[in-house]
Specification:
Elements: E1 2-8, E2 11-19, E3 23-28, E4 36-39, E5 41-46, E6 48-49, E7 52-53, H1 60-69, E8 73-79, H2 85-100, E9 108-114, H3 136-145, E10 148-153, H4 160-169, E11 173-176, H5 183-192, E12 196-197, H6 213-221, E13 224-227, H7 236-245, E14 248-251, E15 264-268, E16 271-276, E17 279-281, H8 294-303, H9 308-313, H10 317-323, E18 339-342, E19 348-353, E20 356-357
Parallel strand pairs: 1-4, 5-8, 8-9, 9-10, 10-11, 11-12, 13-14
Antiparallel strand pairs: 1-2, 2-3, 4-18, 6-7, 15-16, 16-17, 18-19, 19-20
Helix pairs in contact: 5-6
InterPro entries: Amidohydro-rel, GlcNAc_6-P_deAcase, Metal-dep_hydrolase_composite, Metal_Hydrolase
EC number: 3.5.1.25
Keywords: Carbohydrate metabolism, Hydrolase, Metal-binding
Length: about 350
């Protein structure tokens, strides 16, 4: 049982939550703890943490799941990079077991975000150059190894537009990302079944009043899009514009192996990246993922002027709903006991994943 000010699925109440692996009861009553209780964070774009990269395969997924749980993330998607097919398969083979069996002390791995290799070579950002066109046979083969919940592609490449409804029929949320496409390409992709946009503003054609680009398509038409709210990848003004335009804009970390680590050199797939303070960059100086954690994302959203409930929804409810996870991202009887307890400065003091108390000290 935890006690405090609770953000339930119907609004704020003061009282306590009783739970085992699922929430059993929320009872209104006195709470003198000064604690705030929110749904655990749901991060749909995670490459690594604690010096470990998802592309390493093996037990990398378990290390990453444990690392992010300490910051209030209770479920996540292991996210790949553009790479040789053999390297992608190695990563998925490692994730498959973690998806089936949640590691003790770790967040629930809900599946895979396949961020590469179906991208436009002109908008790779920090992605390696091993892009290939998508084929239904290849996606089905990868999907059979580990469930792909989200897939990023550039819809203007080859026959990708025709692939979108086929992938959507598999239950995959197709997102536009790393794209040099036009506004018209974005609108056509949305009409074909695209569900969202990958790290909005980054890795896509920007907005111009004569050529609105992919950003314009998102701002004008998207219901969902992910954004990296580290205040490095996107300016505060651009975040405000997106928050006003896209009803269910949600935050992701795009966290790399450098997350939770000291400044230094780390792996991002086959690339070498460098952490310096709150940034991760290639040797060229370009941003290359982040060291953001979801609790910091919450504090950043609040610093922009969002009320706490709205900020919470953008890190829990909306990404859970995007995946169709109706028992995550919310606090209500019957939902998974994915809970983050915060102090007055919005730092986690307790985290529960499916009822398991997470050790925040390791």
């Amino acid at each position: 049982m935890v006690n405090g000010r609770i953000l339930t699925s119907t609004g704020w109440v003061t009282g306590s939550i009783q739970f085992s692996d699922r929430i059993q009861q929320i009872t209104e009553g006195p709470a003198d703890s000064g604690l705030t209780i929110l749904p655990g964070f749901v991060d749909l774009h995670v490459h690594g943490a604690s010096g470990t990269d998802i592309m390493e395969g093996g037990d990398a997924g378990a290390v990453v799941a444990r690392s992010h749980a300490r910051y209030g993330t209770t479920s996540l998607l292991g996210t790949t990079l553009t790479a040789k097919e053999t390297d992608i398969r190695r990563a998925l083979a490692g994730l498959a077991g973690v998806i089936v069996h949640r590691p003790q002390g770790g967040a629930r791995m809900l599946g895979v975000h396949l961020e590469g290799p179906f991208l436009n070579h002109r908008r790779l950002g920090a992605q390696p150059p091993d892009v290939i066109p998508a084929t239904e046979a290849l996606v089905r083969s990868l999907h059979a190894m580990a469930p792909i919940r989200v897939l990023t592609m550039a819809p203007e490449v080859d026959h990708h537009l025709d692939m979108i409804p086929k992938l959507a029929a598999l239950g995959i949320r197709v997102q536009i990302g790393h794209s040099a496409g036009t506004y018209e390409d974005g609108v056509a992709a949305l009409q074909a079944g695209v569900a969202g946009f990958t790290h909005l503003f980054n890795g896509m054609t920007g907005f111009n009043h004569y050529e609105p680009g992919m950003v314009g398509a998102a701002l004008a038409h998207a219901e969902y899009a992910e954004v990296i709210p580290d205040l490095q990848h996107v300016s505060k003004g651009a975040l405000h514009a997106a928050l006003r335009a896209i009803p269910r804009l949600y935050g992701v970390t795009d966290a790399t192996a450098a997350t939770g680590m000291p400044d230094g050199e780390y792996a991002l797939g086959t690339q070498r990246v460098y952490k310096c303070g709150d940034c991760v960059r290639l040797a060229t100086g370009s941003l290359a993922g982040s060291v953001l954690t979801m609790d910091q994302a919450l504090r950043n959203f609040v610093s922009l002027g969002l009320d706490l409930a709205d900020a919470s929804h953008r890190l829990s409810l909306y990404p859970a709903d995007y995946l169709g996870e109706s028992r995550r991202g919310r606090l209500e009887p019957g939902a998974w006991a994915d809970i983050v307890v915060l102090d007055e400065s919005l730092h986690p003091v307790a985290v529960f994943v499916e009822g398991e108390a997470i050790d925040l000290t390791n």
